[in-house]
Each structure stands twice: as structure tokens, then as C-alpha cells.
TrEMBL record, chains A, B:
One of its GO terms (molecular function) is GTPase activity. GO terms for cellular component: cytoplasm. This is Methylmalonyl Co-A mutase-associated GTPase MeaB. InterPro entries: GTPase_ArgK (IPR005129), P-loop_NTPase (IPR027417).
Length: 353, 353
């Protein structure tokens, strides 16, 4: 499967004996010109390798990833970035497969930043469930990149944004970003994409009870999935319910009336309306200058959150600091010390080191 | 007015000549035993002074504030903490005055952490509009503390939480915390209080367009204000509309059905129902062990946000750093560098200093 080739072949051509000796230098032997050329020519292999460099925690590999990205930066930004969320069981991967297949068949090149559900167990990035998006993975116009959920900001890989840019440089027209639908992941993914799609199930009232607060107001469209068979009538009722609620909510994007639609990923019905909605959205946002404006703001927001993340990580890099923090947190929780005193204590223990 | 006495008399008893000489030491002459005794006896003067110490940016004054707070910590936590928000014009101060008067007349001691609308202009903490809560300010059971909006986290003073604790140690039964209703202030205040009240105006659909996203899901009650005169019928219709929307939203607190109520602050009608709602809420939350649990979690969350705030402040303490940041932000916005590169650059410029 081409999906994993980047990881598997990272040390291609190096014998076992040489791996140890050159392990730190192995990343430095790449031919950058070749990478830039091949990525832009659409080589999945080189794209996958470049993403692996960007995601790497080894600093010189990371540096190569950044260098490649910088050289490709002028070729990015030409895709439609679509985030897809929904409660577990809403059928996210089935929808992405059906929607992605339709787009590929229309001639678009589609990259999917997928969640790897097995990664927290294996520590790796291997698709545990081989049947996930199997058909789409074989389509010549598709590229699926599963990301480990480890090393993430609220369930989104820290480098997802840069992976997206690499896919754009490789000429993908549409990027589909899947979210785990827990924690802060929706907010973070909303901050990465142009269009945010909430996948819902029939029975809005019940489902909303389990939905993250404010999530509906992040969505640019609500798509009720599994509108097929005996469920079809109920799906239409759910769409009507969502429309009613949406009427009262603040819109996700300026001057946009968030629509509710019904689809069947199984019977591939309604998917064309979803795509049509996205194209109308893009047209309207560009007319209002909101498309590029939002992207620039998103980039700056990302910059700021990366700074906070880095400050936090640097500060808590030592075991002692983490232990002090745990002790202070417990004292604060039990109201033995004030928050201000605990903060002072935490920062003074830093200066002593 | 007793409200400001803490600030005005901070240097009482010191001639002009001595102010300069002892200015750094003046804060150190307080009799701590006297403060602890007088605050617990209900002296507004000592309470106001203690708050001023806690809010101070002068480190030895701040240390006194923290010392007082620490000694009083075991006397805190016995109030009902109520946050009040609403769009500008919803009548927050009118509502707080009417609601506070009713509570005071019932025999409760009520502290109000109010917003000082003039503070951003004057830099001080003087109530610009003298008529704001004038009646309540004169009530023997009330204590009003206006806070400057400067030095805030999203419109909430960084020390509001500690001010609240001091008021509790001084025996106030109910703390009303006003929010400016912009930026992150609702989320921050929701993280400080037991009960969060959203003050709304008639005409839900229209008003919601201007309301911050997700705000309704933070509220434990929605109170439609100005339900008087010609407006009364419309207010009832608005209450019904809110009830309908609330039916679809996730509740703010576990197992709580957020009610919508109509009040007239002008004619003092419906205020008793609001108070009754709060008492039922408290009873139910205590039965579920959710009351204390939420408070502990709030304290830990506050601790964490203070750490991030401090890290950010320390990092950007130099002018050079702020300038580097501004330059990098502009490069990031225009996609001249990647976010990762900008972060690297920002942190490497730090280590050079």
C-alpha cells in the first residue's frame, strides 16, 4: 500500500550494519532537488517521505522537512481544505470514502488526513483496521495519510497543518481532514480548514446531548448520514430539526446560512449536494474577501498556539518540575495554598535549578 | 462612599514628606492580626484594603495580600458564587442592583465584583457613572468592588478569583460577578462561579446573532430582562423561544435543565424565581457531589491558566522579543515562512540574549 511507503522505505538502500553507524546522518543524504521535483510531479512516495520528515521528532530530520516545506511554500494554498467531524459512530470514514471517491471520479486529486485509530495502542502509524477507506486508498487520484494521535494538540497532530501544505504542493485539489471528535480537536481543526462539516446521525435531540458544546456553531454544514432504507424518513425529520436549531444559532462564517443536508454514504446519494454547497460557500467567501482573510488569521492563530505549546513544553521538560507541579496541583485542589502562591512556588523552583 | 475607601486611605496617617521615603516600606507596616480580625468581623475598610493589596502590582504589597489570603483560606468557600453576563444593553447593572437589593433585604450579605466601565479611560478604579448600583452601594449588607478592566484576562481581572475568596472570608453569603460580555470573559467567569446567569433581551432570534458562540451552553439560567409594560408580552414569547432552543442544547451542568425566566428589574418582578432557581440548582448539585467537584476543578484550571499566562508574560517581557514576534507574525501571515520556522526563530533569538 502506497500509504505507508514513506515510513517503510525511509532507510531504503542501507544495510543493517550501516544503520547504526549512520543513523543520525541517514536523514541528511536526501537529494533535495529530487524531492522538490518529485513531490510536485505527484510522487506519493516522496510526499509520504517528506511528511515523515516534517512529523519526525529527530531534529535533523525535522530540519529537512522544514527546508522542503519552505521551498514548496509558494506552491501551497491552492486546495479546498475541508474538516470533517462527528460523534463516534456517525460514519466518518464511510462518508470520507464515499465523498472522496465521488470527488476522485470527478477528476479531482484528493488527500485525506485520516485518524489512525490503532496508533495509541501500537505507537506507530499503521492502519490497524485495513478495511478503512480501502477503496479510496486504491484510487489513483487519492492519497491517504493516517496520523498517529500521539503527540497531538487535543487529538490533532501538531504537524497536520504542515502535512496539509505538503499535500497542496503535491497538487492535491481537495484536502479532507478527519477529526476524532473529542476534546479540543474540533476547534483546532476548524482553525485549519476552509469548510467545516459536521456529520450527524438521525435523531438530533438525542444526539445533541452527547455533542460537544458549541460544536454546531463551528459547522458550515450539518450532514445527516445514513439516510437510507428504513432510516430515510427519520433522516429527513432530523434535517428539519437541525434547520430549526440553526435558525437560532450564530453562523460559523460571515453571512453564511449553515445548511442541513441528508446523505447516504452507503447508497452514495446526496453527496453531490454536499460538494455543491462547498463550492457555493467558496464562491461567496471569496466574493467577501473572507476566504484569504480567514486563512491568514488561521496561520497567525496557529503560530500563537505553537508558541504557548513550546513554552509549556520547555518549562515542564524536567522530571523535577513535573513532580513539583503535581504536588502543587494537589495542594491547590485541596485549597491548602492559593493559586497565586502555587504559581510563585512553581516559578521560584525553576530559577533555583 | 465606602466602596473606594480602601484605595483612598491606603497611605492614611503618612504626611507627604514621608510618602517618598517610606513608599516602598509603607505597605509593610500593616498589623496583620488586626486585618484578619477586622475582615472577619466584616470591616469593609479592611476588606477593601486587602483586595487592593492582592490586586497590587508592587511585589511587597502583593505579598501582604497573599499572606492575608493564605491566613483566611480556611474561612473561604461558604458563599454561592453567581456569574452574570449579557450583551451590552441587556441591563446587567440594573439587574444586579435589583437582585442584590432583594437578597440584602432577605438578610443575605451580598458582594458584587463589578466592572468599572470608566477604568480604561482613567486608569483608575473609580466608578465613572456614580449612579451605577447607587442604591445597593448604600445598603448595609452590600459590598461593591469595581475592578479596572486593565490587566485582565479577556476582560476579567486576574485577581477576581482571589477578591472573591477575600469577600467570602469577610462573611459574604452571595458573590455576584459581573462580566463585560466580550472576548473570553464568559468562559473565564464561568470557570470562577457556581451558577452562571445569562441576561437576555426580548427577541431571541435577533439578539442571538450578536451573541458569542456557545454562550448559551455556558448558562445555568437564561433570564429575559425588561419584561415590563408594553414589552411584557414579547418577553414571554422570547422565554418560549429560548426554552425551545435550550431543549436542543447540551446542558451547562450535569443533569440540569437550564430554565428560561422573565424578570423586570424595573418593577422587581420575577427576581424571587431567579433566586429560587439558584437554590434548587445548589441543592441538586450538592446531592450529586457536583458542587464541590466543580469548585476543585475550577481551582486547578485557574492554576493552569495562570501558569500559561506567566510563561507568556515572562517570555515576552523584553521589547526586543515583542518586536521579533511582531516581525515574525507578519512573515507568517504573508506565508513567507512556515509557522514551525517562525517558532524556531523566536525561541533561538531568546537563547542568544
Amino acid at each position: 500500500m502506497h500509504v505507508m511507503s514513506g515510513i517503510k522505505s525511509q532507510h531504503d538502500g542501507m544495510g543493517k550494519a550501516s544503520v547504526k553507524k549512520f543513523s543520525k546522518k541517514s536523514a541528511l543524504v536526501i537529494d533535495q532537488e529530487e524531492y522538490l521535483r518529485e513531490i510536485q510531479k505527484g510522487s506519493r512516495l516522496h510526499l509520504a517521505k517528506a511528511i515523515t520528515f516534517v512529523e519526525s521528532t529527530v531534529s535533523d530530520q525535522q530540519a529537512i522537512g522544514q527546508q522542503l516545506l519552505k521551498s514548496l511554500l509558494s506552491h501551497t494554498g491552492n486546495s479546498i481544505r475541508i474538516g470533517i467531524t462527528g460523534v463516534p459512530g456517525a460514519g466518518k470514514s464511510t462518508f470520507i470514502e464515499a465523498f472522496g471517491m465521488m470527488l476522485c471520479d470527478l477528476g479531482y486529486r484528493v488527500a485525506v488526513l485520516a485518524i489512525d485509530p490503532s496508533s495509541t495502542l501500537t505507537g506507530g502509524s499503521i492502519l490497524g483496521d485495513k478495511t478503512r477507506m480501502e477503496e479510496l486508498a486504491r484510487h489513483p487520484n487519492a492519497f491517504i495519510r493516517p496520523s498517529p494521535t500521539a503527540g497531538t494538540l487535543g487529538g490533532v497532530h501538531k504537524k497536520s497543518r504542515e502535512t496539509m501544505l505538503l499535500c497542496e504542493a503535491a497538487g492535491y485539489d481537495i484536502i479532507l481532514v478527519e477529526t476524532v471528535g473529542v476534546g479540543q480537536s474540533e476547534t483546532i481543526v476548524r482553525g485549519m480548514v476552509d469548510f467545516f462539516l459536521l456529520l450527524a446521525l438521525t435523531g438530533a435531540g438525542d444526539e445533541l446531548q452527547g455533542m460537544k458544546k458549541g460544536i454546531m456553531e463551528l459547522a458550515d454544514a450539518i450532514v445527516v448520514n445514513k439516510a437510507d432504507g428504513a432510516n430515510e424518513k427519520l433522516a429527513k425529520k432530523t434535517v428539519a430539526e437541525y434547520k430549526q436549531i440553526l435558525h437560532f444559532l450564530a453562523p460559523s462564517s460571515p453571512y453564511w446560512n449553515t445548511p442541513a443536508l441528508a446523505v447516504s454514504s452507503l447508497y452514495k446519494s446526496g453527496l453531490d449536494s454536499v460538494w455543491e454547497t462547498i463550492l457555493i460557500f467558496k464562491k461567496e467567501m471569496i466574493e467577501q474577501n473572507a476566504w484569504q482573510y480567514r486563512r491568514k488569521e488561521q496561520t497567525v492563530d496557529w503560530f500563537n498556539s505553537m508558541i504557548v505549546d513550546r513554552l509549556y513544553r520547555d518549562f515542564f521538560s524536567s522530571v523535577e518540575k513535573k513532580e513539583t507541579m503535581a504536588q502543587l496541583e494537589s495542594l491547590v485542589r485541596d485549597e491548602k495554598v492559593t493559586v497565586s502562591q502555587a504559581v510563585e512556588e512553581l516559578f521560584s523552583s525553576n530559577s533555583k535549578q
